[in-house]
Design a protein that fits this description.
6 helices, mainly alpha, 82% helix, 152 residues, single chain
Length: 152
């Protein structure tokens, strides 16, 4: 239980850092573009980033709707901003943070989200990463360590 608790704490800390970076980049980008309520929209984008896949869209929709009132140019810039932030977050930031936080390979993260999402639906999608991290840590504690001659 202690091992599972430590793993969950590390996962939450890594996810919080990821959310903070996404929220900060979103707020700064929206402020730079000139969208009103940039800070609130950045906070919303960071909070929605907790939900895999759907959260990125949920965080971008209010900013895009607000940008529509400013004009087509601003709307395209906001769409490009969110696409760039989510590309960097999904392909660089999240895998690096979670690899250091819980030593979980990115491919296993995607596989677990797909599997848990298919079995349990939306709650499974949200809980897939922390459950997989806990399962990995428990299995790591149960299996014996390799001897020096067996290691690669």
């Amino acid at each position: 239980m202690i091992r599972a608790g430590r793993t969950l704490w590390a996962w939450v800390a890594g996810q919080s850092l990821d959310m903070l970076v996404v929220g900060t980049l979103s707020a700064l980008g929206l402020w730079f573009i000139g969208v009103p309520l940039a800070l609130a929209l950045g906070v919303l984008a960071g909070l929605c980033n907790f939900i895999p896949y759907i959260g990125a869209i949920m965080g971008a929709v209010p900013a895009l709707l607000l940008a529509l009132s400013l004009g087509t140019r601003e709307t395209v810039m906001v769409a490009a901003l969110y696409a760039t932030i989510q590309f960097l977050e999904g392909n660089v930031l999240a895998p690096v943070i979670q690899r250091h936080a819980v030593q979980m390979p990115p491919a296993l993260t995607v596989l677990s989200q797909t599997l848990f999402g298919a079995i349990l639906g939306f709650p499974g999608l949200i809980l897939a990463s922390p459950l997989t991290a806990v399962l990995l840590s428990i299995l790591d504690g149960v299996t014996p360590a390799l001897s020096e001659k067996d290691r690669l």
